[in-house]
Design goal:
The protein is α+β, with helices and mostly antiparallel strands. It contains 6 helices and 9 strands. Strands 7-8-9 form a 3-stranded antiparallel sheet, with no helix packed on it. The chain has a two-stranded parallel sheet with strand order 1-2. Strands 3-4 form a two-stranded antiparallel ribbon. A hairpin with a 5-residue loop joins strand 3 (about 120-125) and strand 4.
Length: about 230
């Protein structure tokens, strides 16, 4: 970026690095950038897109992939219209490249493009922290995988896809005490399936911003001790 072959990168300060990074985006984003949410031309051409990402990726933040998907929805007319050509699958507890090719993504993409069969799940083999291989049917975002309550936890048949919804969230601007209420399963007439958590977060809610528009809210509401599968 300095355009000087003799430039010593080992001597730059954090401030200089930040400036060079900003400069690189300005000069090269149009050439190699991958964060443009306008996929209109791709959709018009009949293109289909499948993305999968491990929620424990230690190198590339999963939230960035989710945020991009949300930006595409906003640009392309909403979640339903986006699902017609673009589907995201999150692999619970999976590290960077943790799938290691053990998923049905290519076959699912072929079936979608050539036969019009959109994937609702993506069969995959995941590796746990202990190295154990488990099978999972990755759920199409925003659905998440939930244990049915019985059966082998290494078997995909013991899990089902459910929509994770925020049922109620209450907080006062400027107060860092937050109470979160989420549906733990599908609601049935006359019944309520909810879980509640009360926790402190290290981020104040700005009084000038409506809380419902805080993009970080769902992530902050999940207790740090709970995994994506447990919550």
């Amino acid at each position: 970026m300095a355009k000087r072959p003799a430039f010593d990168v080992s001597t730059i300060t954090y401030g200089q690095f930040a400036q060079l990074f900003k400069q690189s985006r300005s000069e090269y984003d149009k050439v190699i950038g991958t964060d443009d949410p306008d996929l209109s031309a791709f959709r018009r051409a009949g293109g289909k897109l499948i993305t999968h990402h491990g929620t424990a990726d230690q190198y590339i933040a999963t939230d960035g992939t989710v945020k991009y998907r949300q930006q595409v929805e906003q640009r392309m007319g909403g979640a339903k219209k986006t699902e017609d050509f673009y589907r995201l699958f999150l692999a619970p507890g999976t590290a960077h490249c943790g799938l290691n090719g053990q998923n049905s993504g290519l076959a699912a993409l072929t079936a979608w493009v050539e036969h019009g069969k959109a994937p609702k799940t993506l069969a995959a083999t995941l590796a746990t922290a202990s190295g154990q291989s488990v099978s999972r049917n990755l759920c199409a975002y925003p659905s998440v995988s939930r244990y049915k309550g019985d059966g082998d936890t290494a078997d995909a048949a013991s899990f089902r896809c459910t929509r994770r919804r925020v049922a109620q969230v209450s907080a006062r601007p400027g107060n860092h005490r937050v109470r979160c209420v989420r549906f733990a399963g599908s609601a049935r007439p006359g019944r309520r399936y909810v879980r509640t958590r009360s926790l402190s977060v290290n981020r104040l809610i700005p009084p000038e911003r409506p809380f419902a528009r805080l993009g970080w809210w769902p992530q902050q509401c999940r207790p740090p001790s709970c995994s994506e599968d447990q919550w």
